[in-house]
Amino acid sequence: MPDAKSRRSKNIMQSDLFAGLSPLQTRLIARRRDFDELFDGFTGMRAVSYVVSPDLLLDFIDRRGYACIEVVVGENLTQSYKRNLEQKPIELVERLEGLVEEGTMRIYVPNHTIHTKLYLLEKQECTRVIQTSANLTVTAQDARRQTNYAWYLDIPPGHPVLEQLIHDYRSHLRGCSLFMGDLKELLEENRQQDRRQLIEAWLKGSIASDEQDTEMREVFNELSSSLMDGGDTEQEKVTLLRLPETDLARKRIERHLMPLKPVTAGQHQLQVNKSAYIRFVYENHRVPLLLVSRERKELLLGIDASLTSLSEPVPEPAVVNESLEMLESYLNTVDMAESSDPVATKASMFEALLYVFFTPFAHEYMKAKRARYGLVDTRGPRFLYIYGPSQNGKTTFLRFVLRLVSGRMMEALSRQDFTKTRIQNTLLTGTAFPLAFDDVDPSRTPGIEDVFKSYWERWWRDQYVSPQIVISSNTPRLKEWAKSRVKRVDFDVHFVPTESSKERLAELFARENPIFKWFSYLYLDRLDADGLPSDDELQIARLVMQDLYKRAGRALPAFFPNEPIEKLYDPGRKDWQDLLHGLRKATAENEGKRKLITFTKDMQHWEINDYQSFLPQTVKHHRRGNTIIVENPKEFDRWLGEPPQRHRFLSRLLRR
Question: Which residues contact residue 84 at a Cβ distance below 8 angstroms, ignoring those fewer than 6 apart?
């Protein structure tokens, strides 16, 4: 502990440091004028603020006349800032970038959290130093929802205390990087491209710029296409790739290809072994390379070192019948489990199976849709979302259906693999094999909102294949932006493993079933004949499967989904019917042009959230406490239907 002499010496130094300055002043920021008076009248600012509002920074330049602003934000919230800017007019983002480019505005993000709020406001005669609890945000400026406190000091140029404070400010800059610096470089390197398109690509967090992304995908597309022309000679076992002229894109491609040990074959050219590339895709992405050849009407699968065909002409009826019987045997395992409606459950599982069979053709579906509707409808085929609590067979189902598609045992990707980066990197390979993820929770995965919104709508290019995404989850609640972009299929069943059930499954998994090879052969044949896209992604898949049953001389099972499962069986509607007519945990009352659905007091907040999430997007509603207010009650009544009756779904299916 310092002695009295050293304490006196320290006090003297502090006294000398602040000597000759005007008195320290304080300010309670309880209204907007309090904030404005602190900042008006200066020409420049250096600041540290945990949170920053871009609109307020522009206000400092446009209204207050600041010539230069430099801000250190408190945490590296780059993606959060991008999402915030994405909601703003594109003109605002263009303006911010222009200010960054000319050096008028600099926003720095740190590599660790900074909680300081320090402002150095500059003009010719003095610098005002403000230490406050207020962030540099519109909320703090308006002072309607929060009160802040500040002390400040006006210091003349060259004073020791100012030099110390500037030194302290610069200490906050260490380890920081310039926000929008990457956008600045992106625009500089791609001056020939549309500026707004590049800004939008940057906001969406694409793998790189649109041009760099295109160059990457072009190289990998060239490599994948060359595989379909492979032969036995040494020359045919390798492919010659021409790399982009730009250093950034070329180096990035070289990094991706490094594990293949390519051989330099001239300036900006590489020789790559085709077999090595096939192995590389599967070993690094745990998804095999699946190529679609419409010209040859064939799917080609690469896992080991060569491509094998997944398309074959349909054989004699007895062989097809045997495969269909085996398929139904798997779906009939529902009879060995607990299910409130076994027929509906089998129909749901059949629907999910058809969807996975459809996934290699999702890119072709998107091409047909974009060709017909252009930018009027940019939505792609919905992701498959298989929902159900534990022990309902989701993992086993994915294992079974991936085996049918690939012809070998294959596990789905894990929840740890369900990331934006992982999906984008696999997208580069051009595989049409489905990206199937097991046991994930989309609401807890950073960056996944961007995947849902951008995968087909912004990242998709017609010349490069995009694999479809399949998800299984225990999470029933989905955000609105996810609900409209997924096809949800519920597995309402509970399996209790027994010796007999495990033996039956083992037998089914052990047997070869080439049903998908015939399915793909017929599907490719129908692609040209049935080119018009339907809102039902599975329209062609249903017709192909019906054709297989017809060729086998086998009757369609009662649980075959002739229509989209959401039309035949809506689990959300079933739960609402039970809520209102069975459990009676809520009442529905018409009030003029709206309907009030009031939940009983013992219903938990999260339970009401679940029921709210089950409502379709066509039902316009909002919530107040434990009451859901429906603004178009006729649409709600149409969706809800009559009170459920036993075997209604079974009889409906049997009438088809």
Answer: 54
